[in-house]
């Protein structure tokens, strides 16, 4: 079974918490605090196993990208590009280490 997503923050090049550098009043950051991420973890984790296939990505990342794709009306390629470039997208999706 897939382990639940952990909330963690990525450090930048200078070892400062990136989340502390973002504007807490940003709509995406506010939205990320009210979404019940643990419910997505519980609902989707039954579909994953550690015994088969490549290691999975965090459920929050997958769900977050789908939400952002719909909110911004982006293609798959565009939402991934924005996630790579935009620290607010990364914070919304639970920034991987």
From TrEMBL:
Domain Transposase InsH N-terminal: 21-95
The name this protein goes by in its record: Transposase, IS5 family
Pfam families registered for this protein in UniProt: DUF772
InterPro entries per UniProt: Transposase_InsH_N
Provenance organism: Nitrosomonas aestuarii
């Amino acid at each position: 079974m897939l382990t639940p997503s952990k909330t963690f923050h990525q450090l930048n090049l200078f070892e400062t918490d990136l989340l502390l550098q973002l504007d807490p009043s940003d709509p995406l950051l506010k939205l990320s605090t009210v979404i019940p991420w643990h419910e997505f973890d519980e609902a989707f984790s039954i579909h994953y196993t550690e015994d088969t296939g490549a290691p999975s990505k965090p459920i929050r990342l997958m769900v977050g990208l789908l939400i952002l794709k719909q909110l911004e009306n982006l293609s798959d390629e565009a939402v991934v590009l924005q996630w790579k470039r935009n620290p607010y997208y990364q914070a919304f999706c639970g920034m991987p280490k």
